[in-house]
Amino acid sequence: MVSAMKNLYECVVVGGGVAGSTAAYHLINLGYKVALLEKTNGPHHKVCGEFLSFEALGYLKEMGIFLDDDIPVIKYFRLSSPRSKVEFTFPFPGRGMSRYQLDEELLNNARHAGVDVFRSICMRSYHQEEEGLIRIETITDDFYARYLFIATGKHDHSKEHKREGKDNSYVGLKTHIRFKDQGHEFKETTALFSFPGGYGGICPVEDEAMNFCFLIDKKIYKALNGNFDAVLAYLRRSNRQLDAVFHQADFIEPVCAISHIPYGFLRDQSSHRNVYFLGDQRMVIPSFTGDGMAIALSTAKNCAYEFDCRQKDRKVQVEQIQKRLKKQMHWAFIAQGFLKYPWAIEWCMSVPVLSFFLIKTIFQKTRVSKTEDIYHDDQSVFTSDYSRR
Ligand SMILES: Cc1cc2nc3c(=O)[nH]c(=O)nc-3n(C[C@H](O)[C@H](O)[C@H](O)COP(=O)(O)OP(=O)(O)OC[C@H]3O[C@@H](n4cnc5c(N)ncnc54)[C@H](O)[C@@H]3O)c2cc1C
After folding, report:
1. Distances (CA, A) of 39 to 73, 92, 123, 284, 297
2. End-to-end CA distance of the chain
3. What would the pLDDT profile of 243-301 be if each residue is shown by its tens digit?
4. Is 11 near ligand 1, meaning CB less than 6 Å away?
5. How far is 177 from 145, CA to CA, in rounded Å?
6. Strand, coil or helix: what is 142?
7. Hey, is 177 helix, strand or coil?
8. Rounded-to-integer distance, Cα 122 and Cα 141, Å
9. 164 in the Ramachandran plot: left (φ > 0), alpha (ψ -120 to 50) or beta?
10. Does the CB atom of residue 39 touch ligand 1 within 6 A?
11. Is 14 in the pocket of ligand 1 (CB under 6 A)?
12. Which of 11, 130, 269, 335 makes an SS bond possible with 362, Cβ 3.0 to 4.6 Å?
């Protein structure tokens, strides 16, 4: 009998990153029985710039996540090319928080809301079975769900579902550094830097640390034998602002790396009946120019509500969201186009009014607006559903 089956849930979320934990939290608050499967067994570092935009912070607050005072507030944004730099003030401040800490907070939040969280469980594949069930094959037990929410991030969860983007040419690397001088100039500043064959960012995070994360062309990375010291020497040679940064820094964490990031991948949600895709499984926007974590938070929340609407035969507005995601992707690619060519950045900076206008426009066009969440159309209904627990 179906109801007596072991590991049977109405909703199973696979992946406990930003998107997975958020979807699980909203689904349980909407009244569904939810399990979340995460392959790692504890806190872990991820390749990410670790900058939380004002918009992302809004989604976290909505789930009752308020960041501690020791999580740096980021008021300024700096852009540096090999020879020059410009600085702007953010219209609304963001925060810098390691994924090591953020992802655990989100998972614990989902757990406290009532989600059954399973760790060290890696999905291998899933299969549509009879009686409307999906069998989720993992390296240990099988799980069964009526609805599956896939939030496995940048990595493909199986060969059959391999994604291609418009641009798969980068390798992403990240580590944490600490400045010897505690009164350093980056206390409230996130900085983007450009160098031939790539670009990246520095962002303050908790414990007086700085996240250092960048993308480098695969061919250059290969030519440097994938050796981090050689890559670092190349960056220092290529951008003198970066050279000055590393002069005063100690490396405090091992380096994480990721390759084959399918930038430009955008999935059409409407073709999937009982399987939902969220976060990077829904869309992979160019890093540092798009609002990746806010998109993960927003697609996760909207998926949960879209699913709830379908269950209750209410109208859903999938096209509206897809249109917005396409627009963000378009602008993020324009920004990436500038960043990967330092001469283009230099040219822009030589006309301050132009660089200010471009940065402001790109910034506005790539943000995720909470006012476009689908549940806004009938907020009174959803607000009461939402506070049901
Ligand atoms: C270089 C770089 C810099 C970035 N910088 C920023 C930034 O500064 N600010 C920002 O907002 N965004 C940034 N992003 C984007 C951001 O990191 C992603 O958009 C976001 O992490 C997507 O969240 P997610 O939950 O979809 O995926 P992830 O955070 O990758 O989480 C996926 C989870 O699924 C788990 N998982 C994977 N496979 C399985 C499986 N088979 N079974 C079970 N579990 C599985 C993983 O362990 C992981 O915990 C950056 C991205 C890159 C590559």
Report:
1. 31, 35, 8, 21, 20
2. 29
3. 988 888 999 999 999 998 999 999 886 666 799 999 999 999 999 988 999 999 999 99
4. no
5. 43
6. strand
7. strand
8. 10
9. beta
10. yes
11. yes
12. 335
Per the structure block, which two tokens stand in for 164? 């291609």
**Tell me, which fold does domain 2-45+98-164+265-345+369-386 have in CATH?**
FAD/NAD(P)-binding domain (3.50.50)
DSSP E strand boundaries for 222-284: 249-251, 256-259, 275-277
pLDDT at 81 over 90: no
E strand residue ranges, 97-209: 116-119, 123-128, 134-138, 142-150, 170-179, 189-195, 198-204
Q: What is the pLDDT of residues 20-74, one digit of tens each?
A: 999 999 999 999 999 999 999 999 999 999 999 999 999 999 999 999 999 999 9
Paired sense of beta strands 134-138 and 256-259, if any: unpaired
Q: How confident is the model at residue 382 (pLDDT cuts 50, 70, 90)?
A: very low
Q: For ligand 1, say whether the CB of 95 is within 6 Å of any of its atoms.
A: no
In ligand 1, the atom with minimum distance to the C-alpha of 172 is 1
- What pLDDT score does 387 carry? 27
Residues 81, 99: Cα–Cα separation, whole Å: 27
The residue whose C-alpha atom lies closest to atom 19 belonging to ligand 1 is 292
pLDDT in tens, 213-223: 999 999 999 99
Every domain of the chain and the residues it spans = 2-45+98-164+265-345+369-386
pTM value > 0.85:
yes
Bridge pairing between strands 249-251 and 116-119: unpaired
